[in-house]
Amino acid sequence: MERGERNRHEQPGHEPGFRVPPSLLLVVDSAAWAAGVLAAMALRFDFVPRSWSEWSPVAAIAVAAAAQSVAGTATGLYAGRWRRGSLDEGHALARSILLACGVLLVVNTFVPGMRVVPTSVALGAAPAAFCAAGAVRFLERLMLLRRTRRTLAGATPVLVFGAGDGGFRVIDSMQSDAEGRYAPVGLIDDDPAKRNLRVCGVPVLGSRERLRDIATESGVRLMIVAAPSISSESLRDLSSRALDADLDLRVVPHVSELIDGRVGADDVRPLTEADLLGRHQVDTDIEAIAGYITGRRVLVTGAGGSIGSELCRQLQRFDPGSLVMLDRDESALHAVQMALEGRALLDTDRLVVADIRDRERMLEVF
Question: For the chain, which terminal residue's Cβ has fewer other Cβ atoms within 10 angstroms, N or C?
Answer without folding.
Answer: N
